[in-house]
Structure formats: structure tokens, C-alpha cells
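Figure S4 source data
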Amino acid sequence: MSSSREHTHLDVNGITLHVVQQGPADGGLVILLHGFPEYWYGWRKQMDALAEQGYRVWAPDQRGYNRSDKPEAVSAYRVDRLAADIAGLIRVSGRDKAIVVGHDWGGIVAWNVGRRYPELVDRLVILNAPHEAAMGRYTVKHPLQLFRSSYAGFFQLRGVPEQALGAGGYKPLWRMLKGSSRPGTFTEEDLVHYEEAWSQPEALRSMINWYRANVRTLFAPEPPYRVPVPVLVIWGARDPFLGRELALRSLAFCDAGRVVYFENATHWVHLEEAQRVNALLIDFFMDSQFLAGQLASWE
């Protein structure tokens, strides 16, 4: 049986982050980075499995989310600051390196941690989040992707997105989660947990500030571009927001990488295919030959 979850607060990079920890204290460190509009709870189906394999799992609420600090300035949410938060967590842990796993916006942060702080990263796992350079080049040639990402433009407005997403007890956010996932992925019990996180003071503003601070770098990243650490990209092929081609195109910026497609999964692949994703993570963490094949698919 896995160890219980511990709720801690750690000071890094000038802010305090709420971090949920699980697994043996001396286990290899795995940091799980959630995306929008989730928080640490988005990894609920991975934490037990990884802890049971002997890993020390840290799942932070990233800055602006749930019970972590929420700086007021939009510039505080630039991706370089977000990546520095995770580098700070690794340093605070006392480990030389960590495995970093990121989904959605957490994946964007993870790409940046792997690029900017490779000395701190053992391996990198990305779930349905493109390397920004791949995103920029792909979007120029594929207008459909620009349409899929058009909500990011709406998020540039001040005050309006917060009112819209919070309307009716956060019904628009809840409809987005359920409408973009397979039936049953998000339960009514989950809704209770998410509403609690979304209702934290200034949470919606801070969550949306990630888009406001990084609208340019999403399509034109700052150097460095290449990722020198081993990378596994896991991709739900039925993602309504991001084209599947972005996964393979992201490998062009990796020194060593592999893509595994889940053909029947959506953007929320880690929740919809939790057992298979967990097995894939553990194989990648332990198998030095895992990257020998660049492409695989799961039906």
C-alpha cells in the first residue's frame, strides 16, 4: 500500500508553493506539473502508482493555482519564471536531479525546465503539450490549429474571461472539461474538488494570467530551443485543442525522444488511460533502451 499524501508549503523563487508529496522519502524524485484549469489533484491517478514503485512524488499547485501564491503582476507568470519555480523545487529537495512530468501548460513548463535547466533533469515526460517552436511553425502552415487555439486570444481581455468562466458556479469551466474528454472522465465528486480550487481568492485571474504573460512565447519561444535530456511524449490523438502532428514535430527539438500515441484518448489521456499511462511512465523511468523506437501507438 502506498504512503499517505503529505501537504507541504515550500519557498522557492520568491514565492510559496503548495506541494503534495507521496512515496518513500529516499525515493527518486518525480515532479508532476498540472495544466489549465487543474491543480495537483489532476495527478490523482498517477501518484499512488508511482509511489508504490518507490518514487518520491511531488505534485505542486503551480504559481497562481489553488493554494500556492498568486502574484498580481501579469509578468510574474512568464514561462521563464514558471520554469524557475520547478528548478527551485528540485534544488530544495536536496536531489541532484528529478524526473519532470507535465501535462498541458504543465508540459510547456516542463519543456522549458528541460531546456533551461538540463543539469537538474534526469528525464522528461510531456503529455499533450507541444514544444513551443513546433507550435509556432505548425500554426503558420495550418490555420485550423490557430482556430483551435483561438480561446487564448479571448483570454487576453482583462476581467472578461474571469467573469465568463466563473459564471453560474464555474459552469463554463466544468463544461469545457466534460466536453473535451471521454464520458465519465470527470465525475461529480471531481467537480466538488475543482470548484474548491477555482474559488480560491484571485485564482481565476492568476490562472488566466498564464495566457496573458506568454501569448507570444507560445508561438515564438525564447532560446535555448533544444532539449538535451531524454524525452517521452505521450499524446491523446483525439485532442480537440492540439493537432496530433505537433507531437512528432516536437521531437525535432529533442536530442533523444519518442512519441507514444493513444489513439482513442483525448487531451486528458492521463485520466482516461491511467493504467497504461502509468505503466508507460514506469517503463520509461527504468528502461535505458526505451527510446530505441521513436513512435508507437495504443489503440
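Figure S5 source data
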Amino acid sequence: MIPQLYNKATLMLIAGEVSGDHHGERLVRELSALQPDLQFVGIGGTGMRDAGVKLLHTIDELAVLGLVEVIKNYPAIRSIFFDCVRYARKYKPSAVILIDYPGFNIRFAKQMKKIGIPVIYYISPQVWAWGRHRRKTISKRVDKMLVFFDFEKDFYTDTGLDVTFLGHPLVETVDPQMDKTTFLRANGLQQTKPVVGLLPGSRKNEIINILPIMIETAYMLSLKRPDIQFVLPIGQSVPSDKIDEILQNTHRDKIKQLRLAPRQVHETMAYSDMVMIASGTATLETACFATPMAIIYKVNFITYLLARMLIRIPYIGLVNVVAGRKIIPEFIQHEACPSAIAESVLKHIDNPQLMADKRHELKQIRQKLGKPGAVKRAALEIISFLAVSCKTTATKPEQTVS
């Protein structure tokens, strides 16, 4: 039974990246389906806007990768931060839902606690990787934590924080829109030749740092194995002009079997024999298709040094974190050299048994991500939380998003 709210509740959502916008959009749609009177305001992208969120600011104003880049953009980010704080103080939303983006959102949670606004964290910050000491801080600022990984619930066990494991929403979204035969035919690829996908990420900084490495690696591979076919999918949110610029300044013209596949990211993940991929959630999406991969991570050098000081886990790829061991090779910073990556790709493609073993291990990762329905479970948890919270504010006048 779905609890009924006592007043017309307004939820403030804060997402600072494209992935957060996607998660926020799906959450808002589920919440609206369960409680049509809910109102939404906050920071997001086109997805959240189209789902009905009144945007105070957009993710385009916040989406920077790396500590150095954040420092450069700090004045603008600080202005947005306090603009949202002022809005929350004036209009008193029923609750704030924070979506990942820890540098901004953990501080925002502190301000909300001062104001007395309940805080729900949807997608736990990855403090298990870089800031275990912040568990207690988060537990003091957050009222409800909704997590995607089962190990995250255990991570907060001794803090007293109310944590619910949902499973991961991506198990429902990794759905290619065409079958393998159609995908291969649409991109001029041959069924009998190996296919290697290039997935450099969606952020501008990721593409600048990682795509040239992937193109150089593809060039080396094409010299050793001319039969290998390469696919570079271009997602909807990816800056295609930057990709074009990088392709013009690399060996792209020397790689005869490189195909660009607009909006065919999941197809590339599913139907490639192997992919080179930027570290991030995309590694889990690829794992859902049991496609072997090589993980690449490269950022500004100062950012990397600072990250090395902070990160306390032995792996950087989420697929390895979930596995609890290194099942996928990682090429980080200075190790992300084309020759080493090319050697790893060839080692896999030339060894059918190794490829089969990797696929088996990746299928186990898929099972650890939980059952379908995570977003609906999140919506029900939030509404139940609001039903209790609203009992104390039932006499307040109806709120209107301004």
C-alpha cells in the first residue's frame, strides 16, 4: 500500500552530472506516477527538466571532472551553491534528494540540516573509496540513504544511518535498440571479424584525455591485426565537435576499419568482442552484457596525485570494486599507454578460453547488481519517508514552486 501524503509536497533534487540527471529523471517519473501532486525543483539536465523538475540551474554549469578543474570553476559553483541554499531557506521544500555529486552535495546536506529540511541521499557518495572517515559526517547530515550496491549498506552499518539497498537501476536500462545482425549491418561490420568498441566517456575532459589514447591503441592494433574492426559510439550527451577535433589530429585516417555509431552505446557494449572503456558506471553497463574490457583512466596530473592520496581501495574500475578483486585490467594514468593496452586487447582476442572466463566472471557481477525495479523501490522508500515527515507539517499551507 502506498502511503498518502498530508500536503502537496515539494522535493528539491540536486544532480551535478549527466549520469545524475538520468537517475534523477527516472526517479522523478516514478515518484510522479505514484504521487501525481508532487512538485519538483532543483539542479539537473534536460532529462529532469522534461520529467517535470523546475531547474534553478543546469548540470552544464556544474559538470567538471577532476579536483583541479573544480578549483578553476569554484567561484561559479559557489554562487550556484548558495543560490540553492537561499531558495531552500525561503521556500522550505518537504525534503531534499541529493544525487551522487559528493563535493557539492555533502556540503549542501549540512546547510539543509541547519535549516531543518530532511535530506535523502540517492546514490551514495563513493566515500568507501576515498573518505571512509566521512561516514560519520554523512550520517549526521543525511536522514535516509538509498544505495545501489549491497556492500554500501554494510559500509554504513556502525554509523546508525538509515540505509536501504535498492539494487542498481542500470540492470533495467541496458537494453540495445537493435539486434546484433542489424547493428553490424548498419555500421558496415563483418560478422566473421572481431569488433573492438571505444568508449571514452561522456564528459569533455574524459574525451580529451582518453580518446587519443584509444585511437592510438586502435592504430597499433590495426597494424598487428588488420582484421580487427573498431566502433566509436557517440552518445546523445557527448560533445561531438570535440570528438571530431581529436579524430582529425590523430591516426584516425589510418584506421580503415573505424566506424562512428551515433547513439549506439549499448549496442557497442553488447556486440563488441571487447571494449576499451573509461572508468565509471559504463564498466558496469558493459559487465551486464558480459563483454570483456580494458579500463582506462587518465586525468590532469595534479588531480591524479591528489586522488592517489585520497583513494583507499586497490581498484579504480567499478566492475572490479563490485567483484572485490581485479577481474578486468586497469590502465591508470602513466600506465595508460597504447602499447600496453593493445597488448592486453590482443591477449584477450587471441585467447578464446580467456574470453570465456572473463564473460563468466562478468555474469556474476550482473547478479550482484540486484533485481529489476530499483527505481520504483527508491520512489516507494521516499514516499514512505515523506509520509512520516509530513505528519509533523500537516498544518502548514500548501507549497508552490516559484
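The domain at 173-368 is CATH 3.40.50.2000 (Rossmann fold). The longest helix spans residues 204-224.
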